[in-house]
Structures are given as C-alpha cells and as structure tokens.
Amino acid sequence: MNVGVLGSGAREHALQWSLQQGEGMDIVFCLPGNGGTAHNINVDPSDHQAVRRACEQFDIDLLIVGPEGPLAAGLVDDFEGHRTRVFGPSRSASLLESSKIWSKEFMRQANIPTASCAAVSTVEEFVAFAVRHGDRAVLKADGLAAGKGVAVCKDREDLESAWERITTLRPASERFLAEQVLDGWELSIHVLTDGATWCLFPSSQDHKPLLNQDRGPNTGGMGAFSPVHECTPSLIDEISRDIISPTLEGLRDRSIPYCGFLYFGLMITPEGPFLLEYNVRLGDPEAQVLLPSLTSDLLPALLSCLDGDLDSHALAFDKRALASIVLASPGYPDMPEIGYPISGIEQAAETALVLHAGTTRHHGQVQTSGGRVLSVVGRGDALCDALDQAYAACEQIRFTGMHYRTDIGRRNHP
After folding, report:
1. Which residue, 310, 292, 290, is CA-closest to 301?
2. Does position 212 have pLDDT exceeding 90, yes or no?
3. Which tens digit of pLDDT belongs to each residue from 323-372?
4. Is the peptide bond before 333 cis (omega within 30 degrees of 0)?
5. Is 184 a residue whose pLDDT tops 70?
6. What angle do CA 312, 17, 302 make, to 5 degrees?
7. pLDDT at 269 over 60
8. Which pLDDT tens digit goes with each residue over 17-76?
9. pLDDT (tens digit per residue) in 126-139
10. pLDDT score of 169
C-alpha cells in the first residue's frame, strides 16, 4: 500500500515517522513535506486538483490529511469516489473547528459544559460582554487562524488592543466570538474515531504563548508534554461521559459522519472540565509527543477507522513521558525571518527525536523556511527526564535568531 501524508509541518513529519515504524511499511510520501521528511512530492495542499493528480501519479492508496485548512475546504468531499481513500473528516464535520460560532452553538445544543459566549461584530459589543463578566473576556476569530486567532483579556485595558489585533485577521474571520474567561488548567485530549467508537490517546498539554511564564502573543504552540500527571482516570471518565460521548452523539443526530482524529481543548476548573474548542485533526505540537508514544502500528488503526470497524482495534502506548520543545525563527509569530542555515541537527538526533517543520534543503544544506522550525522530542521515565533529554538536544542546534521557551512542562510541575 502506498501512503501519503498531506502537509509540511512537524505534525506531518511525526505522522510519516510513526507510519514508517509500522511492520512492512516501505515508502510514505509527504505532500509537500519539508527539509526533514523523505519522499516529498511538491504540491500545494490547498490545490485539491493538484493533490488528486499527485495521488494518481504516485499510486497513493491512502492519503492522511495533517492540517485543518484542506479539511475545512472539503478535500475529503472532493475525493469522494476516487481510488485514493482520504483519512480525515468532511467539510461539514470540520465546522467543529472552522467556525468557532457554529462550534459553540453545537456544544450548547449537545449540553456540553463550556463557557458562556456571544457573537460580536463591534468593539462596543465585545467590551459590553466583558463588562458583564468582570472586565475579563476571551476574543476569538470565527474562522481558521493557525492558532493565533485568540486573545485572553484579563482586564479592561486589554480589550481594545485585543480587538484591534484579532480583527486584523480578516479575511480569516469576519465574525468574532466573545467568551467568558475560565479559571483552571488546560488539558488536551485526542481521540481517533469512526464516529461511533473512539480510541483515546494519552493526555497532553501544550504551551501557546511565545515566552516563558505564558507571556507574549499566542502562537501555533511552543512545546508540549505527555502524559499530564493531574489527568486522573476519574477525570478521563468524566470527560468521556460529559464531552466526548455527547459530541459524537450530537454529530450523529445531525447526520454528520465523522472519521478521523478529534482534539478536545479543555479547561479543568474547580467545577469540572469545560470544553474550550475542537480541532478536527491532531494538535501541533501535541502530535509530536503523542505519535512517538505509540507502540502499536498506526496504519491498521486508520484503516479500521475508515472501514467503520474501530471497535475491533485498540491502540497501545508507551507509559513513559515525552516532551517536545519548539525552536522558532526570529520575528515569529508576526514576521518570521527565514533562510538561515541550521547546524547540529545530526548531533541532536543522536539522543532525541528531531522533527522538522519550517525547514527546506538548499544544495544539501537545511535552512529555515518558517516560523516554527523544529520540534525536539525527549523521552524518559519521568517528565523531568524527558525534558532534560529534549533541552540537552536543543543546545546542539544552531541557527541565527533561534529562540525557544525554557519552561515547557513546568507550568504544573515546578
């Protein structure tokens, strides 16, 4: 079977790496891939006709979609009836992520615990919402914004500047969601599902702000770790009962089939877990710590999911801790500077897993080509061991302006 992974980030590199660990796997293509992936096919993931032609040219039997953009644009729908099977949810199912307003209404109708909210179109409406909630509010772009369309305002002085920042994301969003600020700690839960049955991945936690101590602008993610010690079996039972099951039931009630990965971004409050958002794919950087934890083959699970037979399949995971550190370009997330040569990757890879994101190869030299450049993944019996391994490997790597957070995994683990 010829398999392709659509996308070019560290999540897609992790998918390719994980698939290649499977028994009997030979070539896994990446479309278009990056400077660290193998068997790259130069194609624009947003050009669905070009993706179809590439799948035909290279006899790709299964295409796994990494990023959210092609899913929201209906790539799965466009391949209906094609010989290549596509793993991921349809355009209608992808509304869970591609429209924050639609998603919140879905949560409300499915009785899923979530923060109070309102759709807003002016700064005055946003400020009025915040005033009703103690001068605190979250502002979200309705559409896709690569993880950067969220601003958390902790006092009135933040409100207008947040509005100006988020509304510049047009045309990514013409509508906006104001949301109550919830107090607690964040948790990422991922499942693989065929719409009826689901397999849980280990718990994880990412770090969105650019700088240490969760300061600075939001990014696509600066690092992650797994598992989360505070995520107990009883908490997982509560999340499964009150959030995961009602989600899949709500989709079935609307006759919306779902096949793929599904991410639940949660806030664990003193009152219990609340759902912040869905992603209709693996999170990035969470995928970089979840996929390497697999001890069973990924491909059979994906095929079972496509066949609607996931209840006959189980995923198995390593119990050890994993931690991923994102190495970013200067100027990220606003205006990343690119084109700098990278050294030390081979040395870092001797002790850690180095996954590429914003890289390319020029005359054999790996160079930076994006804001998030590399994800360096460590593993250990305890989280501190995984972090030590990852950070030691980061010190081997060099490129101009390279920066990374030095407190990943220490938010709840001082």
Report:
1. 310
2. yes
3. 999 999 999 998 999 999 999 999 999 999 999 999 999 998 999 999 99
4. yes
5. yes
6. 20
7. yes
8. 999 998 877 789 999 999 999 999 999 999 999 999 999 999 999 999 999 999 999 999
9. 999 999 999 999 99
10. 66
Helix (H, G, I), strand (E, B) or coil at 231: coil
Q: Is residue 124 part of a domain?
A: yes
| Residues in the chain, total | 414
- 70: which 2 tokens? 């092609």
Of 261, 277, 312, the domain-final residue: 312
Same-domain pairing of 331 and 236: no
Name the domain count of the chain: 4
> Do 303 and 189 share a structural domain?
yes
> In this structure, what CATH number is given to the domain that contains residue 199?
3.30.470.20
Instruction: Render 378-413 in DSSP notation, one character per residue.
Output: EEESSHHHHHHHHHHHHTT-B-TT-B--S-TT-SS-
* Claim to verify: residue 345 and residue 371 sit in the same structural domain: yes
Q: What are phi and psi of 14, to 5 degrees?
A: -65, -40
Q: Is 336 left (phi over 0), alpha (psi -120 to 50) or beta?
A: beta
Structural domain harbouring 158: 117-179
pLDDT above 70 covers what percent of the chain?
98
pLDDT value at position 93?
A: 98
Residue owning tokens 């930076």: 368
One domain, residues 138 and 213: no
User: Cβ atoms within 10 A of the Cβ of 13, count?
Assistant: 31
The vertex-67 CA angle with 184 and 355, nearest 5°, equals: 85
* 136, HSE (Cβ side, Cα atoms, 13 Å): 9
212 within domain boundaries: yes
Neighbouring C-alpha atoms within 13 Å toward the C-beta of 199? 24
> Is there a domain that residue 411 lies in?
no
What b/e sequence results for 251-261 when a residue is b if at least 16 CB atoms lie within 10 Å of its CB, and e otherwise?
Answer: beeeebebbbb
The residue to which tokens 């915040």 are assigned: 130
Any domain includes 271? yes
Q: Is the pTM here over 0.90, yes or no?
A: yes
266 closest CA partner among 276, 257, 279? 276
DSSP code at position 64: E
